[in-house]
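Hi,

Apologies if this is the wrong queue. I'm a grad student, and the batch job for Fimbrial biogenesis outer membrane usher protein from Tsuneonella deserti produced an output file that my downstream script rejects. I'm not sure whether the problem is my script or the file. Here is the sequence I used:
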Amino acid sequence: MLRKRLLLIHVGVSLLALATPSLSVAADQLEPPVAAPTRMVNPTGRDVVLTVPMNDGATYLGDVPITLGTDQAIRLPADRVLQLLSEVLAPDVLQALRASFPSSSMVTPADFAPSGIQVAYDPQRIELVFTIPVERRGSRSVAVTSLDQERLGEVLTPLDASAYLNVRGSFDLVEDGFDEGFENPNMLLDGAVRLGGVVAESDAIWSPGGFGPDFQRLGSRLVYDDTGNIMRWTAGDLETTGRGFQSVPDIAGISLYRSYGVLNPQQIIRPRGDRSFRLERASIVEVLVNGQQVRRLQLAPGNYDLRDFPFAQGANDIRLNVLDDTGRTEILRFNVFLDQTQLAKGLSEFGLYAGIRAPLRRSGPHYTDDPMFSGYYRRGLSDYVTVGVNLQADKDVQMGGVEAVMGTSIGTFGLQAAVSHFDGAGNGVALLGTFQRLIQRGDGQSDTLNLFAEHRSKNFAPISFFLPDNPFEFEVGGGYSHAFTDRVYAGVDGRYGKGRGAKPDVASARLTAGWRITDAATLNLEGRYIKDSQGDEVSAFASLTVRLGRYSSVRGEFDTRGDRARVSYQTLRGSGVGSYNVTADAETSRFGSGLSVNANYFANRAELGFSHYGSFNGRFGDSVSQRSNFRLGTSIAVGGGAVSIGRPIYDSFAIVRPHRSLKGANVVVDPTTFGYVAETGALGTATMPGLSSYAERTVPVDIENAPAGTDIGQGTFRLFPGYRSGYMLEVGSDYNVTALGTMLNADGEPVALVSGSAREIAHPERAPVIVFTNRQGRFGAAGLAPGKWRVEMLDEARSVYIIDVAPETQGVLRLGEIRPSGENQ
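Support response: The file is valid. Your script probably expects a header line. Output copied below for reference.
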């Protein structure tokens, strides 16, 4: 758009210069240019100031004002040019240019010649083109995936204060069976309040009229995320996590937690592939991982660090196909073996939980006097070795453990070990070893191999166990799968457990196979053998899934164990408001038969659900029980002076409302070809409930039946939510006025072919509105709001104009002829 506007506005200059060749300075042209070019770039007889695009070859860098002098010289502002070149040139080249430039703020293309850089002005395209040798360029980093990307441009920050409450209610109707009629409703309540960076959250169950207490509080806590150090502080009823042989106890106290998947999901925490390469010419680079193309890049000449390969678990074959602009090709290859549980070198994850034991009782957490601690720490020692330690302790049990994961050329080895002491029971030990390997084949198919062996002594126990319970002396197992083609695969897996004392040995084996018959039909088969306390059993299972169009499928299956046969149907239609899903099953076995249906509908301000379960004697004989379930989920969100009702909120949310200039028009949030997320409707606000914390999201909006000339603002919002944060997004603005007029200078002559900027006097911090004039001095300034605006033009007199937009102005403001205000710039 900018280039088109420049071409239209400066048509006079470009038409006069159509026959004029580009002015350029070759890399080896060290002598000053001749004083007067043979062809003119500025035939107007006076200096002309233009704002033009500045390009690195075909790559747009930014806009720069240039002066086309009456002496036919091209002058550039040094500071602006160097600012745009700072991301392209090598640091030493950039420093040398700064030192060599004259003391004046303006430079010419000839000033770049000693550095080997060509500078050309193209009067036909009205742009400035830089040609930079590859050896003058700095190294740049290219991410293969979109993860770890810098958030460029304007990203809105969450509200300082916001809150929401979810209400999910359900009740049952028993049509046939014990205790017929309506049963008491159950409601799950959960919500959060965010003030600054601190979140207070809680959840509870309310069952009015039920047995026992009507209200059960499940947990409440304060949460603060230190995003700079990627740490989460929590106080209250803790949500513990564990590693290795640890249990997950109920603790009330304080915790410190780091998980990249939770607090920084866009960062790849597994080891990265880091390889450098150099391009002498502009090239197209294809990146393939295990035969799959993951990105296609168009790169200018330069030095590059290719990072962030989307590694699959197992052996990885990385290939770069380079095709330069001359047609020459080159292939770069390397291999690396990684495992998903590994951390990159220098990265660490941990969880530390300390407080008192707080088991959940019927009315809520029961706070005891028993101290309790649980914690773990993991760190990547190298890109191939990750180690960790863990510890748990209460008044009865103390347990400590270690873990290690090592990636090698033949596979990934994992080891976990722990020792425990249980007062009254004694000491115990536990060991677990694993091996994983993904075998890539040349035809694009792959095999997987997994092995494990585990031992727990009789008295081994983590915390929160009443008594140690380890029925097996050891367990071993593994599995192997093989893909014959992209349509046929088979696998085998098995497990054996040696019973302790009087406990019987157990064993199982399974043979699986799959065949994608057509693009719409898939057949799966299983043969099974199980040995346990009930004896030996051999069984088989088969299923056939057929897709019915784009949204629906039907599945039939039969299991010889219990002679169970089932037919099921499922469909999923739409996305967002108005979408629904339905599943229905009919099943029969030697134990009886049953029918079930489950449906969910997603409205603008609620989620609605219905389920029915029926069982019968024999093959759909007499009814044994019939039960229906009705569900409703909704939320109320508060923030930014607005209140909104919508579907349940799972993490963060945004309230969307129309600006008063839209006069009540309906705003549609995140419209797609499959549906939309929410709409403001009659209540005047909409809730976008599905924002994930620390994951960037772009939210587009649309307006139905908007008044003519309405400015809807930017049309999209870029968000980066914090934990349980809220946004208030207002669609539309007061900046919907376009001023039209003719600029005259102090002598009454048109201010022709000049650019300038208009700033709102009351809000100088806002970005200015760019203003251009044509040969007759006519101009148009779009995006103004009621108030006074100061317009500064880049003509010789640096003329300043004051535009006063009345409060009631909407649409187009016709100013006629305007003259300078007499102010200096």
